[in-house]
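Let us practice reading a record.
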Amino acid sequence: MDEVRQRFARYLVAQMEDARMSQTALAERMGVTQPMISAWARGEKRPSPANCDRLAEALALDVDEVLTQAGYRPRLGTDDEPELKNILEMLRKVPPGKYPEISDYIRWHYERARRHRVVRIPVE
């Protein structure tokens, strides 16, 4: 179990306890399976960015914080926030069937940019 998944598992369990919500209730509210929630809570897996959005909505959390806790974005300064919020707004308009393709591309580009110490993501 890696550090990101462990941190996310602790975060998820704490948020579920605060909301007094069971794994089953959260799964129903999100439209996912209870075993999926269980895997996140045990730190075996982490949610996709799309499921981070659903999780934030289901538990009334800030989606940026959920994405950060899940390891999809680093903690950034306030100067970066407006640009990232615009990107997230654009992503929310993407049909759900396209999420995996877009997520894979962003992850690939991010890793490539990180190896070359470049932080820009091209927007076409």
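A brief commentary: The first helix runs from residue 3 to 19.
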